[in-house]
Amino acid sequence: MKRLIFLFIFFLPIIASAQLFDTEEEFLTDDWSEGLHIFVGAGVNSSNYHSNTRRNYLGLGINLKTDVGWYFHHDWALESSASVKFNRLNGDLIWDTLLTLGLRYRLENYYFRAFAGAGVLVVVLGKDQPEINDNNTRRLHMDGPALGLGFGKTNKTEAGKIWFIELNGTAQQIKHRDDVAIDGQYPIAISSQSVNDNSTIYSLQFTIGVLLF
Amino acid sequence: MIKALCLFILITCYSALACAQNDSPVSGTARINSKEKMINFAAVYAAQWTYYLIAHDDEIEKYGSFKNWHKNSINPHYDRDSFEYNLIRHTIAGQYYYLFYRSRNYTEQNAFLWSVISSFAFEFTIETVTERPSYQDLYQTPVFGTVLGVGVEKLSIYLHDTDTWIGDLVGYILNPFPLLPATNTIFGYVVPEKNKISLMLQWEFE
Fold this sequence. Notes:
The complex is a heterodimer of chains A (213) and B (206). Chain A is mostly beta strands. In chain A, 9% of the residues lie in helices and 64% in strands. Chain A is built from two helices and ten strands; from the N terminus they run H-E-E-E-E-E-H-E-E-E-E-E. In chain A, a hairpin with a 4-residue loop joins strand 1 (35-50) and strand 2 (55-71). The longest helix of chain A has 14 residues, at 2-15. Chain A starts with a helix and ends with a strand. Chain B is mainly α. Helices cover 62% and strands 9% of the residues of chain B. In chain B, helix 1 crosses helix 7 (135-161) and helix 7 (135-161) packs antiparallel against helix 8. Residues 16-29 of chain B have low confidence and may be disordered. At the A-B interface, helix 1, strand 1, strand 2, strand 3 and strand 4 of A face helix 1, helix 3, helix 5, helix 6 and helix 7 of B.
């Protein structure tokens, strides 16, 4: 099922291909033009890790997001999104990617988003971690389902450029973990295990961005 | 790692902010006929195979097989690649796909769309020789590549507009595809030899 959902997400732009003719319609903050549009933005995130046995505040980090949307109505859009977040914990870099499919609904200049998909979280171990010497583990890769809600506001500059501010809240579970070593350029999973301790990452992301096209 | 991350973020932000609703002169509603689309796609596909066979020579020898090539293609997964591969190299590859299609008079949306198709072709029919298709790459290569490509295209146009030789030089280094003449046709030959089969592609320009 997961694969079918993700294949659908990634085939979305191709499905839209038959309609990619320039309608010459202008994208307005209170009247979306139909067709394919991409929003891109950057901002900050604040994240927490919870499990049955541990709680960690991952601190403030940066995040980048892209929304590839098929705007099929002046108020509605179907979108596939990627949100890439970076945080630090105890000298390790946490690189977290959420790949989601969602709906976007407009109300005047405001819009609301609901989305679900998967999160891929990578812990890049710092050089002072003992794991590197013990078993050559360089990174921990974890994945699991994710979902979120968000709202934002689109604005237009005097020059006619569309930009937005947005707040998203996400929750992502960790269901699987690989310890990864490196062989040349290739990553090798030296151990894999299911994660059953209710590990979840809760995150808030504030983003500012623009309409690319 | 941190330096690479900062550089990546800076370039991405620059591209996005500088190029909101790109209005470059290449924009337009030019219709590309089916034959041209196939030729352009084939040119990118041939370039992808060439790059892959040269750049991944060692890995192909170590992990590659015909069995992998067809078995992996139906088995996508979340890859375990590094930050450098997933966010930098794939973004740069996606940028070249986008810039190539833009240079053939595709609109921004259609250049993006064909970048998606080329990324799928690479993930599902080329890279499977050594590894499974990656969900992250399928999204990030065309999308992040388009974000970067929009910025690079606009920057190169700005540099050409300075009317200086250094501006032209850097402009063509950033985006060399406008140097390509218009596509006329492409030929392909399969040449069986004693211990191998060669594929020859010939791209003829107008």
